[in-house]
Amino acid sequence: EFPFSAAIPFGVFEKILAADANKPVQQKIQKLQASLTGEPQHDLEVLKELRNSFEEVEIPASLLKDLQARTLKSPLSNFLQEYEEESCEAIRRVWASKWSDRAYFSRKAHRIPDSNLFMGVLLQPVAAASYAFVLHTKNPMNGKEEELAGELVLGLGEALVGNHPGRALSFLVDKKSGKVTVGRLPSKREGFFLEDSTFIFRSDSNCEDLDKYAGAGLYDSVMAIEPEKKAIDYSNDRVFWDGNYREELLKKIAEVGIAIERQLGKEQDIEGVVSEDKIVIVQSRNQV
To answer: Which range in 127-131, 160-164, 170-174 is most confidently predicted, on average pLDDT?
Structure first.
């Protein structure tokens, strides 16, 4: 299953910032950008001011109305209408993450000019997931094309992509025989959980999958409703204790990943969740 989504393309932020209503904040942002020196201690303070300045950006009502019109008869359209201010705040936070500390210094290290980076926003539903996973359809550790590698955590993917204590369940799947090999069982102490489905405003930059530079994960994605962080009780988890269930689930996830690779014709880096025993793909990109 692939979730319904909508996008705010590259260049929209720049157009909005250039509008008359945003001239003061545009000048403020330009002045702060010009004051960046590349010296970490100085730039950290400037970056913080840059991110905070995005709170002053006025998002025109026409942007949300256009998104609503393009997503009619979908839950997203209703959400944008009911939670207009929350949606605008989430969009601002994604745009502002261009100036996150990690993103800025990463670009500096790879000599990517700040002016070359553009931020888009992808709006997607988020299911109240039981598990989240990441797949690489070619094993990135040894380069074996016949071997799929994956990681899985309880709850949402924040515990997987964030620097949270513990490890994810790791596994390999032989793409020809379907044999599943578990490298380690999960040991993440905490997970992120939703009581009900919501929406996420995902960052999407034009500098995420460049040759010799993978910028994925440097920019922020923002949930409309923040998930609850809970301690994980593995004593009640089937993936941890039920070997047959674990193997069948991992095999099912791998089959979806292999099918996506086959359809797109290239090795894939895939993110997804398991919700009510359904495999939901969040995104897939060419593996770098």
So the answer is: 170-174
Q: Looking at residue 136, what is its pLDDT? A: 97
Quick check: 11 and 118 in contact, CB under 8 A?
Answer: yes
CA distances from 221 to 118, 175, 218 (A): 15, 32, 10
For the chain, how many residues are written? 288
Query: Which tokens in the block code for residue 10?
Result: 């590259």
| Residue 118 amino acid letter | F
- Average pLDDT in the 217-228 region? 86
- Residue 31 in contact with residue 48, Cβ under 8 Å? no
Tell me, letter by letter, the H, E, C secondary structure of the chain: CCCCCEEECCCHHHHHHCCHHHHHHHHHHHHHHHCCCCCHHHHHHHHHHHHHHHHHCCCCHHHHHHHHHHCCCCHHHHHHHHCHHHHHHHHHHHHHHHHCHHHHHHHHHCCCCHHHCCEEEEEEEECCCCEEEEEECCCCCCCCCCEEEEEEEECCCHHHHCCCCCCCEEEEEECCCCCEEEEECCCCCEEEECCCCEEEEEEEECCCEECCEECCCCCCCEECCCCEEEECCHHHCHHHHCHHHHHHHHHHHHHHHHHHHHHHCCCEEEEEEEECCEEEEEEEEECC
Q: State how far the Cα of 114 lies from the Cα of 103, in Å rounded to an integer.
A: 10
Q: Is pLDDT at 213 greater than 90 in this prediction?
A: no
Whether pLDDT at 209 is above 70: no
- pLDDT single digits (tens) 139-156: 999 999 999 999 999 999
